[in-house]
Amino acid sequence: MRTPISRRGVLCAGTLALLRPASAKAAERCLDALIRRRHMIRRFRPDPVSDATVRRLIEAATRAPSAGHTEPWTFIVVRDAETRRRLGRAALGQMFVAEAPVAIIACADASRSRPRYGSRGDRYALIDASFASLLLLLAVVEEGLGACFVGAFHDAEVSQILGLPKHVQPLAVIPVGVPAERPRSLKRRSVDQVLRRERWE
């Protein structure tokens, strides 16, 4: 049987689950490397991103967990240049959204959660769409691309641009493309700074 590899020639954590237990350490290293390579990219080259690549990104996103397996997410893929410019203006003038060849808008569809969870379903829809968005961001890295999770925008304006129904909330505008910058590494809080045991005290 052929050993599954990524397009970058690295054994992937997801496929390693099918291999012998001794590969668990390699899977851990692969996931750790993927996470460490993820950065927010705000400058893009004009190189196109294929439909097949975008489909792989969405497929990865849909592997996210969701409350009651309701899968309350929808992804709108925008390639039209004028629509991307309008989205950039709606995102408080963050025009790098328009520079990327494609923008993926992650949406939370509470109509899938409410029948089971009532008003609490609105919260779950946002959480679950966020999970899916993170998997999409990691898949972007695996594809050798860059992306930025843009959460600052006028909800009503983005909804109008995309023709969203009232029960669907835009969660993020995610421009995707070939990076045209090398982002600097940011200092992060240590595990000891964020870890508490049993209670806050």
Considering the chains and any ligands shown, give keywords for the structure.
201 residues; alpha+beta; NADH Oxidase; four-stranded antiparallel β-sheet; 9 helices; 13% strand; disordered N terminus
What features would you describe in this structure?
The chain is α+β, with helices and mostly antiparallel strands and 201 residues long. The chain has two domains: 1-37, no CATH class; 39-182, 3-Layer(aba) Sandwich (NADH Oxidase), CATH 3.40.109. It has helices spanning 13-16, 24-37, 51-61, 81-90, 96-99, 114-117, 120-142, 155-162, 191-194, and strands at 73-78, 102-109, 146-147, 168-177. It has a four-stranded antiparallel sheet. The protein is globular. The termini are far apart.
Question: How is this fold's topology laid out?
Answer:
Elements: H1 13-16, H2 24-37, H3 51-61, E1 73-78, H4 81-90, H5 96-99, E2 102-109, H6 114-117, H7 120-142, E3 146-147, H8 155-162, E4 168-177, H9 191-194
Antiparallel strand pairs: 1-2, 2-4, 3-4
Helix pairs in contact: 3-7, 4-8
What is the number of domains?
2
| Sheet of most strands | 4 strands, antiparallel
Structural class, from secondary structure content? alpha+beta
CATH fold-level label of the largest domain: NADH Oxidase
String of helices and strands: HHHEHHEHHEHEH
Widest sheet: strand ordering: 1-2-4-3
Number of strands: 4
The CATH first-level class of the largest domain comes to: Alpha Beta
Which second-level CATH architecture of the largest domain applies? 3-Layer(aba) Sandwich
**Termini gap:** 52 Å
**Helix fraction?**
40-55%
Number of helical runs?
9
- Name the overall outline: globular
Radius of gyration: 18 Å
CATH H-level superfamily title of the largest domain: NADH Oxidase
Strand coverage percent: 5-15%
Average predicted confidence as pLDDT: 89
